[in-house]
Amino acid sequence: MDHLRYSGLAFEAQRAAFLDIVAADPLLAKTLARVRALALPDWLVVSGALYNSVWNHLTGKPPGYGIKDVDLFYFDDADLSYEAEDAVIRRAARQFEGLPLPVEVRNQARVHLWYEARFGSAYPRLSSSAEALSWFASKNAVGVCFNADGELDLVAPFGLDDIFSFRITPNRVMDNQWTHEAKGRRAKENWPEISVVPW
């Protein structure tokens, strides 16, 4: 199986292939339908569950292989309290009951309030869910949502060639070396085809 068949192609060709693979994945399709029904403001399903599903497809592995959870971002700066986010997390938990993969929900408008205490460095105040992808430790940062026409849409600030080239490249915008290396180690255990670019 030629797992690198989309590597090096033009972005539009990679985008079409990526969205086709995501839409055809039964676990992601079911999850995305439930996320859509939740109707959160400025939501994106992001990263691992998406590109891991692409790697599974391209290496002939079953849907869900190697995926820990689904990350769901939303952006709501109307109420930055923990309680408001917790209410959304509880509502989402009911919505996602019975799905094979757990869904982690986080309001990206609040991340700057708790990030430094948890990870030791400051984090910028964001203006959208999509902006959060630019601050990820590695450039495999992608998100999908449904657009106004009900079609799957893609946010990929670093493009898709790293994903289709089975490569994890550091994003040095923050001091995230540990996260990048941990992500690389875990990916190589599940997909030995992966190469990890050193920090």
Domains counted in the coordinates: how many?
1
Q: In one word, what is the shape?
A: globular
Percentage beta strand: 5-15%
Provide mean pLDDT, rounded: 96
**Topology pattern, helix = H, strand = E:** HHEHEHEHHEEHEHE
Largest sheet: 5 strands, mixed
- Calculate Rg over CA atoms: 16 Å
Query: Treating each run of at least 4 consecutive H or I residues as one helix, how many helices?
Result: 8
Poorly predicted residue ranges = none
State the end-to-end distance: 30 Å
Overall structural class, as computed from helix and strand content, comes to: alpha/beta
Notes on the structure:
The chain has 199 residues and is an alpha/beta fold. The protein has one domain. The chain is 42% helix and 13% strand. The chain is built from eight helices and seven strands; from the N terminus they run ααβαβαβααββαβαβ. It has helices at residues 11-24, 26-38, 48-59, 82-95, 111-119, 129-132, 161-164, 177-190, and strands at residues 44-46, 70-74, 103-107, 143-146, 152-155, 167-168, 195-196. The strands form two sheets. Strands 3-2-1-4-5 form a five-stranded mixed β-sheet. Helix 8 links the parallel strand 6 and strand 7. It is globular, with a radius of gyration of 16 Å. It starts with 10 loop residues before the first helix and ends with a strand.
